[in-house]
């Protein structure tokens, strides 16, 4: 096995598949990256932690074919630190030793037999869809922060993707808050699909779509019973699906409100952040008081002091007073991009919802904290 | 107590004195910042953790005089997050409550009685010196990383500043390595001075001199038996001195060598970093082999592999082979600014020294690792 590759290209490829390397595995080989050189095709990189698997193809000058697995930590560190020049990669296929040469640098690293590396599952997909990758990424970003950390309810640690003929919906909730986002579906499917994607899959997909320079392309999905496969910009991303039942979120979404507030997102975000500096440490609760033309935001921590902010709003409907977790507010205010957002309320014991001003494709819902709780 | 101050100015002052705030103190008041408003003078900020104390003066529009202590964490967070506008600071001197107003933001925080704040020690100094602050900072930076972390030998956790009629010398060592730097002394003194500055004092002084925009000014020092006071750019910085005996470092500095090597600092630094990626994990040892026109740098970790770099050098004297800690090399190569540095050797069991090519005002010494150790 022998090939020549430019250092920056090699490092770029390693960084992409690295996200799927197992950090602490009982199978040592999963802490490695699979590297295969194929004549006329290039270098094939694979990492697989059994939840996520990533494949990537690199252009390289292949002189001898072969495959080997190298420990990811050493490989990443070495290729990152090499000078920006041609790297000669030579593997002794009998003893699985790899020799890496670049200008005046030479490394010998022990590898593993490529045959022992677990192949990525083959997705015998019943459903195939195509969406613009940037839209898909935006949908993920608008909900991924609202997953649960509670491992005893695995379904809530992921996001429910439900697909019908018109739309692709993604929902996350930890039962105290819920985020819902929706994009158009132009692929035709013959029945509704409901799958739960792991939280880590949402995070890594978002990173990888971001890191790419050519985001105008489409992303394609292939969905089977236990796995989903994403293809975008020469990356193949395979994820296990979470088994289990996702709560019936539609039940929770309010279908009407008594109060609609238009507010500047950036001003609101800064004010909540300041007021939360003096909030009850355990729950970080702030009180929103909605008056005719302005909102008061208040907090009080008996041993420290109190804080008070005032912001202009546009009110439609009743005045209100509600206690909410400041962190839940700040999370969504950071992610949305709209200058003006809409807050809807029913009463102090009902959920508060945040929507975009323009369309109804996004709903964020926060359960109130009971006054005095 | 009542004053008006621009948010950015107030925050800048807080950031300067904050370095001397106690993070975990049995005296709660030391976790606060002392704020005094004096007519025609401005705002006086003080923090004091009993090892370091910092005073700073700020311009402000004083309306009523007074002094109070506020918890540093809350004060810093609040002033940092306020909009860039005028801040009205009002203290109720009876109940030690402070009201902070800025545009639509209002905070009430509980403070402490100013009288309870321990005054900074008065330095009845016998010795006063003046040096250009940037030179003093450079001297600190060249040695501060080589202090010891061993709290059972307090003297080694600091730096020995020894002053004679010609020069100010600063030395640090952990007994495995030593850093020595020297600047000119133009102040006349009637006897040699030897004091040990705490490691933390060296770090914070370096930061504060750096953060300042107007570095062309002089720094003045006033030294007493137990304390040292630095004045620079409106900052007063007081530090306790470490009691104890610093080892006789002059004994250790070699007065001759068998080998002199001129080497490119950046190339050497990158090569050592790469080779150390595959070095014995516990000690991070690399082998330097000095030949006629080049240096080989090698490492070997039996279960991972090995690494080898080659760099051009200019040799004067004998060829050599020596084992050293790669971290000790990288520390100094990061700090020096010279393109070319000089390495001097006696033999594989004697210390290796690194000097600047031009002058003899800097010496860095590393004890070798015994081969096979």
Automatic annotation (TrEMBL), chains A, B:
Domain called DNA polymerase III beta sliding clamp central: residue spans: 132-248
GO CC terms of this entry: cytoplasm; DNA polymerase III complex
GO molecular function, one term: 3'-5' exonuclease activity
CDD domains: beta_clamp
InterPro entries, A to Z: DNA_clamp_sf (IPR046938), DNA_polIII_beta (IPR001001), DNA_polIII_beta_C (IPR022635), DNA_polIII_beta_cen (IPR022637), DNA_polIII_beta_N (IPR022634)
Source organism superkingdom: Bacteria
Signal peptide: none
Subcellular location: Cytoplasm
Function: Confers DNA tethering and processivity to DNA polymerases and other proteins. Acts as a clamp, forming a ring around DNA (a reaction catalyzed by the clamp-loading complex) which diffuses in an ATP-independent manner freely and bidirectionally along dsDNA. Initially characterized for its ability to contact the catalytic subunit of DNA polymerase III (Pol III), a complex, multichain enzyme responsible for most of the replicative synthesis in bacteria; Pol III exhibits 3'-5' exonuclease proofreading activity.
Similarity comment text for this entry: Belongs to the beta sliding clamp family.
Subunit structure: Forms a ring-shaped head-to-tail homodimer around DNA.
PANTHER family per record: BETA SLIDING CLAMP, DNA POLYMERASE III SUBUNIT BETA
Protein name, per record: Beta sliding clamp
Native species: Iocasia fonsfrigidae
Species classification: Bacteria, Bacillati, Bacillota, Clostridia, Halanaerobiales
């Amino acid at each position: 096995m022998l090939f020549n590759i430019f250092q920056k290209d090699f490092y770029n490829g390693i960084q992409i598949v690295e996200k799927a390397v197992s950090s602490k595995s009982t199978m040592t080989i999963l802490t490695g990256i699979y590297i295969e050189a194929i004549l006329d095709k290039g270098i094939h990189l694979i990492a697989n932690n059994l939840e996520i698997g990533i494949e990537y193809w690199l252009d390289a000058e292949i002189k001898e074919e072969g495959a080997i697995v190298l420990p990811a930590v050493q490989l990443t560190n070495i290729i990152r630190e090499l000078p920006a020049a041609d790297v000669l990669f030579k593997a002794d296929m009998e003893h699985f030793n790899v020799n890496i040469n670049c200008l005046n640098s030479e490394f010998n690293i022990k590898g593993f037999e490529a045959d022992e590396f677990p192949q990525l599952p083959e997705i015998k997909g019943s459903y195939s869809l195509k969406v613009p990758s940037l839209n898909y990424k935006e949908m993920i970003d608008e909900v991924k922060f609202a997953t649960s950390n509670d491992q005893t309810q695995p379904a809530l640690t992921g996001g429910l993707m439900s697909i019908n003929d018109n739309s692709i919906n993604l929902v996350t909730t930890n039962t105290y808050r819920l985020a819902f986002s929706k994009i158009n579906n132009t692929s035709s499917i013959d029945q509704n699909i409901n799958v739960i994607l792991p939280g880590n899959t949402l995070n890594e997909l978002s990173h990888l779509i971001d890191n790419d320079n050519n985001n105008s392309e489409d992303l394609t999905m292939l969905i089977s019973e236990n796995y989903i496969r994403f293809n975008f910009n020469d990356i193949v991303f395979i994820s296990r699906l979470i088994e289990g039942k996702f709560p019936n979120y539609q039940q929770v979404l309010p279908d009407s409100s008594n109060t609609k507030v238009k507010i500047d997102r950036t001003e609101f975000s800064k004010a909540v952040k300041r007021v939360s500096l003096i909030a009850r440490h355990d729950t970080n609760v702030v009180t929103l008081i909605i008056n005719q033309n302005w909102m008061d935001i208040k907090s009080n921590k008996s041993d420290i002091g109190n804080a008070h902010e005032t912001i202009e709003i546009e009110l439609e409907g009743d005045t209100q007073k509600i206690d909410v977790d400041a962190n839940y507010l700040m999370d969504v205010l950071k992610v949305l991009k709209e200058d003006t957002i809409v807050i809807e309320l029913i009463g102090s014991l009902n959920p508060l919802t945040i929507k975009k001003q323009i369309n109804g494709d996004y709903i964020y819902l926060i359960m109130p904290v009971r006054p005095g709780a």
